[in-house]
Design goal:
heterodimer, A: about 325 residues, alpha/beta, 2-enoyl-CoA Hydratase, Chain A, domain 1, 2 domains, 14 helices, 9 strands, B: about 300 residues, 11 helices, about 35% helix, globular
C-alpha cells in the first residue's frame, strides 16, 4: 500500500502501466507518451524523496512492505537456524534470532520482528517485546559470547510492550539487564536500525561497537505520537513532534549516535528490498572486517569508548 | 451539609504574609488526612508520623538524612545543558531549563558528591525530581557516569537515589544513549568489587528504571513509590482495562521479585551503611542516629477549620 505522499508517484505509475497495456492491445503507438511520462515520474520521485520531511521518514520507516528482520536474515545470511524460547518463561515472537552464516562466517543474529500482515502482526505483537523476548535475546548474546561469534542485531520496534503483564514480569529490569549484557560481550557487536528504533526497547539490543541505521529508519526516546500526547495532549500533533525530535538517520549521524547511514534505494527500502538488503550486507561485512582485528578486551573498550562520548553539554568555567 | 464542606466553600481568607502563620506550620497528609506539624514532618524525614506516607524528599534533606553530618562534598554541577536539538514545543527547551534552574538552583537533575556513612567512604548520586521531573538528559547521564568513574578511582561504594520520569524528550535519542553510557561505567566499579546500591523513590520510571536504577547490586525502594517502565496512562490506553490495585508500586515489585526490600526512609541511613560494610567485608560500623526532636506543639484548638481571623 502506498503512503499518502507517495500517491502522486503510484498514480503516475499506474497510468504508465495502463498506457503500456493499451499500446500492446491496440495499434496506436504510445512510445513517445510513455517516455515522456516516465521522465516525469523520475523527476517526481527525485523531488519527493529529496525533500522528505521527518514525519514522512517516520511513515517510511513503518511502511507496510518494508523489509523486516526475517527478510534481511533470509537474504543476507545463509544457514539460518532459529532458536526459540528464553528458558525461563516462554517464547516471544516479537524477537527472533539464532545462528547463521554471513558470507560463510558463523554469527549470532537477533532481530526485532514486526508482522508482514495483520495475522503475523498479532502473533508478533507488532514487534513489541515482553520481558521474555529480551531474556531470549540475552540468551543468544550469551551464546555469541561463549562461542566467540560476532553478534549482529536488527532493530525494528515501536518500543517494548507497555502492558500489565510486561510490567509484572519486570520490563524495566529486563531492558536494563540486556543493555548491561551488551556492554560486556567479548565479541564484535554490530547493530542496525532497519525501521523503527523505539526507545528502551530498541536500545536493549542496540549497544554495539557499531550502530548503523538505514536511510529512512528512525530512532528516538519516544514515539512522535506519545511525545505529542504529552506535550500537546493530542497524538495527532505527531507530525510537529517528529520535526522537533530530530529522529531521522541524518539527525542521529550529526550527534554520533549512529556510525553510518546506509543508503536505501530510491523510493525507500520497500520499493526495492533487494537493493536495500545488499547495501546492508556490504556495510555489515565492512564493519565486521574492521572489528575482527580487535581482541576481546579491546572490543569491550571500543564499545565503551563509543558510548562514553555520547551526550551534548557544556563545561561551566570556574 | 457537613461543617467541613461549609467551610470549604468559603473563599480563601488567608493571605501570605499575614500574622496568621498556620498554613506554614501545619500541613495535611495526602494519604491519611491527618494534621501534621510541618516541623515534626521534617524531623521525621518527611514520613507521615501517623500513616507512614513518604512525602517527596528534597535532595538536601535526603543527603542530610543519609550521610555522616557535615561530610558531604559536592562534585556535580560543573556542566550545564545546552539545546542540541533546538527543541521547541509549547515553549523552547531552553526556557524549560531556565525555569528548572531557577526553581532548584541547580544545573541538572543529579546532585553527586563524596561523603562518609558510618565512617565508610561513599559516593552518592541523588536525583532531583524538582528539576524537570528528574528527567535524564545529557547532563544527568554525564554526572552519573562521572560519579561512577570517580567512585571507582577513589575506591568508594556508590549509592544512587533515583527519582525520575525517565529519559528527557527534549534531548531526543541523546537522552536514550545515557542509559547505555551509565551502564558501561558500572563495569569498573564491579571489577573493583565496589558495591553499587540503588534506592528507588517515587517515581522511578521509563529510561531511568530501565537502566542504571534497575541493576544495583542491591535494589531497595521506598514504600509505595511508583516504579516501572511504561507510564500508567500509556498502559491503560494500550490494554484498555483497569490497572490492578497497587500496580507498579514498590510492594508490587517486591512481591514480583524485582526489588530486594521495601524499606522505610527513616531506616535507610542504618540499612545502607550496614549493607556497604558487609559487601566490602568490613567490621560493623556504628551509625549515629539522626536526632529527631520530639514534642511538637499541640494542634490549635478546633483544628484548622476552627480558627478564623
Amino acid at each position: 500500500m502506498a503512503l499518502e505522499f507517495e500517491k502522486p508517484i503510484t498514480d503516475l505509475e499506474t497510468r504508465i502501466a495502463e498506457l503500456k497495456t493499451y499500446g500492446v492491445t491496440s495499434a496506436v503507438d504510445m512510445t513517445e507518451e510513455i517516455a515522456l511520462l516516465e521522465k516525469r515520474l523520475e523527476r517526481l520521485r527525485l523531488e519527493t524523496f529529496s525533500t522528505l520531511t521527518r514525519w514522512q521518514r517516520v511513515q517510511l520507516a513503518r511502511a507496510a512492505g518494508r523489509p523486516t528482520a526475517l527478510d534481511y536474515i533470509a537474504n543476507i545470511f545463509t544457514d539460518y537456524q532459529e532458536l526459540h524460547g528464553d528458558r525461563a518463561y516462554g517464547e516471544d515472537a516479537a524477537i527472533v534470532g539464532g545462528l547463521a552464516r554471513l558470507e560463510g562466517r558463523a554469527v549470532i543474529v537477533i532481530g526485532q520482528q514486526k508482522g508482514r500482515d495483520t495475522k503475523e502482526n498479532i502473533a508478533r505483537n507488532f514487534g513489541m517485546a515482553h520481558p521474555e523476548g529480551f531474556r531470549k535475546a540475552m540468551r543468544l548474546m550469551d551464546m555469541a559470547d561463549k562461542f566467540g561469534l560476532p553478534l549482529i542485531t536488527l532493530v525494528d520496534t515501536p518500543g517494548a510492550y507497555p502492558g500489565i503483564a510486561a510490567e509484572e514480569r519486570g520490563q524495566a529490569w529486563l531492558i536494563a539487564q540486556s543493555i548491561q549484557k551488551m556492554t560486556r560481550l567479548r565479541v564484535p557487536v554490530i547493530c542496525t536500525v532497519i525501521g523503527e528504533g523505539g526507545s528502551g526497547g530498541a536500545l536493549a539490543v542496540a549497544v554495539g561497537n557499531r550502530v548503523l541505521i538505514l536511510e529512512n529508519a528512525v530512532y528516538s526516546t519516544i514515539s512522535p505520537e506519545s511525545c505529542a500526547a504529552i506535550i500537546w495532549r493530542d497524538a495527532k500533533e505527531a507530525e510537529k513532534a517528529a520535526e522537533a525530535m530530530k529522529l531521522t538517520a541524518r539527525d542521529l549521524e550529526k550527534f554520533n549516535i549512529v556510525d553510518q547511514v546506509i543508503t536505501e534505494p530510491k523510493g525507500g527500502a520497500h520499493n526495492d528490498p533487494e537493493a536495500a538488503m545488499q547495501n546492508l550486507k556490504t556495510a555489515l561485512l565492512e564493519h565486521l572486517a574492521q572489528l575482527e582485528g580487535l581482541d576481546e578486551s579491546a572490543l569491550i573498550r571500543d564499545r565503551a569508548a563509543r558510548f562514553r562520548k555520547l551526550g551534548v553539554f557544556e563545561e561551566i568555567s570556574a | 451539609m457537613t461543617l467541613e464542606r461549609f467551610f470549604r466553600r468559603r473563599p480563601p481568607q488567608q493571605k501570605e504574609g499575614t500574622s496568621d502563620d498556620l498554613p506554614d506550620l501545619w500541613g495535611k497528609c495526602p494519604k491519611c488526612n491527618a494534621q501534621v506539624y510541618n516541623k515534626e514532618l521534617e524531623q521525621n524525614l518527611r514520613v507521615c508520623p501517623t500513616c507512614g506516607y513518604h512525602h517527596r524528599m528534597p535532595v538536601k534533606k535526603r543527603l542530610e538524612g543519609l550521610v555522616d553530618a557535615g561530610t558531604f562534598e559536592q562534585t556535580s554541577g560543573k556542566i550545564r545543558a545546552t539545546d542540541p536539538l533546538e527543541f521547541v514545543d509549547t515553549e523552547p527547551y531552553t526556557a524549560r531549563l531556565e525555569r528548572s534552574r531557577k526553581k532548584t538552583g541547580r544545573e541538572g537533575a543529579v546532585v553527586a558528591g563524596r561523603a562518609t556513612m558510618g565512617g565508610l567512604k561513599v559516593m552518592l548520586c541523588v536525583m532531583d525530581f524538582e528539576f524537570n521531573g528528574g528527567s535524564m538528559g545529557s547532563v544527568e547521564g554525564e554526572e552519573i557516569t562521572r560519579s561512577m568513574e570517580l567512585a571507582a578511582s577513589e575506591h568508594r561504594a556508590l549509592i544512587l537515589v533515583a527519582a525520575s520520569g525517565g529519559a528527557r524528550m527534549q534531548e531526543g535519542a541523546l537522552s536514550l544513549m545515557q542509559m547505555a553510557k551509565t551502564t558501561f561505567a558500572l563495569e569498573e566499579l564491579a571489577s573493583l568489587r565496589l558495591p553499587y546500591i540503588t534506592v528507588l523513590t517515587d517515581p522511578t520510571t521509563g529510561g531511568v528504571a530501565a537502566s542504571f536504577a534497575a541493576i544495583g547490586d542491591v535494589v531497595i525502594a521506598e514504600p509505595d513509590a511508583l516504579i516501572g517502565f511504561a507510564g500508567q496512562r500509556v498502559i491503560q490506553q494500550t490494554v484498555r482495562q483497569n490497572l490492578p490495585e497497587g500496580f507498579q508500586r514498590s510492594e508490587f515489585y517486591e512481591k514480583k521479585g524485582f526489588i530486594d526490600a521495601v524499606i522505610d526512609r527513616r531506616e535507610h541511613r542504618e540499612h545502607l551503611t550496614q549493607l556497604i560494610a558487609m559487601l566490602t567485608n568490613q567490621p560493623r560500623p556504628e551509625v549515629t542516629a539522626l536526632v529527631i526532636q520530639a514534642d511538637p506543639p499541640k494542634p490549635p484548638r478546633g483544628g484548622l477549620f476552627g480558627r478564623r481571623g
